[in-house]
Amino acid sequence: MKKLIGSLLFLGLAAAVIGGCSTKEPGVICNVGRAYPFAVVYTPKAGAPACATTTAATLNNVAQDPNSTSNVWGLEGYFSDKDVNLKVVAIRPGEYVDVDVKDPGGSPLALGNWTSFDPDAKDICTVPTMQPATHGGTTYTVSNLQVLNEPAHPGTELVASVTYSDGTCTADYDVLGVWPAVACGNDDDCDPCPNNPNSANPYGSGIATDFPVACVNGYCNLKGTAGDFPIRGTPAACK
């Protein structure tokens, strides 16, 4: 069955592993959308081996297996009151939703550090490299994670490079993500405006009104490619 799983559930005991969240005052600082995961799309990079096309179809859940969560990511950001240099980002790929963070078979979390607490001049926050997430014979090596952080979009759109290996195919992918992950059956379900009679979400999707999205592989996903990041459009005229 299709599930929307909160990022806290996705990340499990990450706070205990990393050292906890801080009481840092909220504002336009580097952070990520939380409480729900991101919907993500994997696209093989130029020059990727032929097997990457089949693997991408699996990761993107093109078959729309109702039991798969492979096309969502749970994210969380952690700051330390005791160490001002500790500014950790954790990613749990959807494949590892049920894996305990202390499982001896490998860590289900990719971990890295923001380059700064503050977004750059383009309102982007970056994590250059991350400790791989790995379990059960598969590995996600995430790099160049970039997250849009501005008042209207506080950590709700991302792009990253990922090297994914499942033991038979190792390839590089671009990943484009939007928060929150909203399950859909058609484009109307992705409408951010309330009271759309054709939408399964009577109060709106919860996605930013100026994010152009469409229903792809069972989730509302951004229109465009990783190269278009950050993607913004004309705000929807909600009544």
Radius of gyration using CA atoms only: 17 Å
What's the count of strands? 11
Helix/strand order:
HHEHEEEEEEEEEE
Q: How do the strands of the widest beta sheet line up side by side?
A: 1-2-3-4-5-7-8-9
Largest sheet: 8 strands, antiparallel, barrel
SSE layout and pairing:
Layout: H1 7-11, H2 14-18, E1 38-44, H3 51-59, E2 72-79, E3 87-93, E4 110-113, E5 124-131, E6 133-135, E7 138-150, E8 153-165, E9 170-178, E10 213-216, E11 219-222
Antiparallel strand pairs: 1-2, 1-9, 2-3, 3-4, 4-5, 5-7, 6-7, 7-8, 8-9, 10-11
Word description of this protein:
With 239 residues, the protein is mainly β. It has one domain. It contains three helices and eleven strands, in the order H-H-E-H-E-E-E-E-E-E-E-E-E-E. An eight-stranded antiparallel β-barrel has the order 1-2-3-4-5-7-8-9. A two-stranded antiparallel ribbon has the order 10-11. A hairpin with a 7-residue loop joins strand 2 and strand 3. The two termini are 33 Å apart. The N terminus is likely disordered.
What are the defining features of this structure?
single chain; 239 residues; mainly beta; globular
The gist of it:
Helices cover 8% and strands 33% of the residues. The chain is mostly beta strands and 239 residues long.
